Amino acid sequence: MAVRVSIVVPVFNHWACTRDCLQSLAMHLRGDWFEVLAVDDGSTDQTPAELPGLGAALFGEAFTLLSQPHNRGFAAAVNRGSRAARGNWLLLLNNDTVWTHDCLSPCLAALDADPALAGVGPTLLYPEGGRLQHLGVAVAHSIKCVHPYHLYPSGHEVAGRSRRLQCITAAAMVVSRRLFLDLDGFFEGYVNGMEDVDFCARVAASGRHFTVLPQARLIHAEHQSAGRFARERENSRLLLDRCGDLLRPDLHRLAGEDGYALRFTPWLDPVLHPGPERERTVTAAWKADPRPGRVEALLEMEPAWEKGYVILAGWLERRGEPAAALAVRTRQGAFLPSLAVLEETQRLARICGDAGRLQAARTRLAAVRQVLADAAGLRAVAVAEHARAHAAGDTLLLEVWDRWMTQFTAR
Fold first, then answer.
1. Would you list the domain boundaries of the chain?
2. Domain 274-372 in the same topology as domain 5-248
3. How would you write the chain as a 3-class SS string?
4. Do 90 and 82 touch, CB atoms closer than 8 A?
5. pLDDT of 233 over the 60 cut
6. Average pLDDT estimate for 331-341
7. Is 34 in contact with 60 (CB distance < 8 Å)?
8. Which residue has the higher pLDDT, 167 or 410?
9. Is the pLDDT of residue 227 over 60?
10. Taking burial as the number of CB atoms within 10 A of a residue's CB, which of 38, 51, 114, 321 is the most buried?
């Protein structure tokens, strides 16, 4: 049988992750319609000794090991594996993923059903607690890319629908091999970051799109690569130079489709707030039974309910449970960051003697205040994005920027 899918797995150290990934893959995929290409990027742990035997034992002749003499980075490893692949489709797969079911077949079915679909990925979940990691990548402004609904419960309604997206992560991406190679694959000037956004932006410029499937789910440990964020600033500059004119803000549209409203913090980080209907729903549920002990369940239903965090954290602290209150404020800071919330998190961390969270709060506050110190620069970004929204005729996004400038700057 001809190979239909080539699964390309870049590997650099972290042998236990690679082992678990390949074993789970073998457990949930059967047949001779796929091949697995592991690209070892110069691993220095037990990977070179263990990987050949395990790959052969699990996949037989369908396994290929491509060894590089040194670590050339994620993009180069993916490109090498893709050039050696035989399948019509590529599954680009991080080695820190774990399969719990066959999440590949639904992706292939979606691609077969829609010629305008350039690529598909599964929903990615964190290993602990099963919270959402990836439902797609959205553009908030300029090249500011975010994962909508990051850390929402995996059973939340937003996880039950697919979306038309400009970008998805390459941690698990199914894409045509021909398309990937025709676009010269990933640009290798990036160092372990943004190469997938760059690729997707180039694809989206041709009018095609991506999606993430709710019925296909994969566990992803995330950020196992050494130095994962060491070149974040340089990668962002490169993305701006290469794709600044290709990416279009879409977070406001995606949020609106789910009943949320996009807002920006004073330092221009995007935040999703419940729209009127969502706010009415959670408020009515609270008023029907206003016991503080119920708030946790309501926050699972509506993680962006600001009042709920205030009620729950205050109640817990009054009960003499500052550590629990700290956990609530930390979660609030992830969904609804503000200076007040970060300062409250810092206060509670100090009371609890939680050195890790105290340092994290201090670091984040310092970073935010550094950005806020450049008020002129923030306003310049807002003015430029306002003009961009006006030129695009995007009235919804214009309202978002009008609101920010009214709240945080003098006209």
1. 5-248, 274-372
2. no
3. CCCCEEEEEEECCCHHHHHHHHHHHHHHCCCCCEEEEEEECCCCCCHHHHHHHHHHHHHHHHEEEEECCCCCCHHHHHHHHHHHCCCCEEEEECCCEEECCCCHHHHHHHHHHCCCEEEEEEEEECCCCCCEEECCEEEEECCEEECCCCCCCCCCHHHHCCCCECECCCCEEEEEHHHHHHCCCCCCCCCCCCHHHHHHHHHHCCCCEEEEEEEEEEEECCCCCCCCCCCHHHHHHHHHHHHCCCCCCCHHHHHHHCCEEEEECCCCCEEEEECHHHHHHHHHHHHHCCCHHHHHHHHHHCCCCHHHHHHHHHHHHHCCCHHHHHHHHHHHHHHCCCHHHHHHHHHHHHHHCCHHHHHHHHHHHHHHHHHHCCHHHHHHHHHHHHHHHHHHCCHHHHHHHHHHHHHHCCC
4. yes
5. yes
6. 98
7. no
8. 167
9. no
10. 38
User: How high is the pLDDT of residue 265?
Assistant: 98
Report the length, in residues, of the chain: 411
Structure tokens belonging to residue 61: 């002749």
Question: For the structural domain made of 274-372, what CATH number should be given?
Answer: 1.25.40.10
Residue 411 has pLDDT above 50, yes or no: no
Residue 409 has pLDDT above 90, yes or no: no
| pLDDT tens digits along 261-300 | 999 999 999 999 999 999 999 999 999 999 999 999 999 9
d(CA 256, CA 332) in angstroms, rounded, equals: 21
The domain over range 5-248 is classified in CATH as 3.90.550.10: yes
The answer to whether 177 touches 88, Cβ cutoff 8 Å, is: yes
Sign (positive or negative) of CA dihedral 334, 335, 340, 344: negative
- Amino acid sitting at position 217: R
Question: How far, in Å, CA of 154 to CA of 126, rounded?
Answer: 9
Strand partners, 117: 209
Segment 30-60, tens digit of pLDDT: 999 999 999 999 999 999 999 999 999 999 9
Mean pLDDT for the chain overall: 95
- b/e per residue 13-38 (b: at least 16 CB within 10 A): bbbebbbbbbebbbeebeeeebbbbb
* Angle subtended by helix axes 322-335 and 339-352, to nearest 10: 150
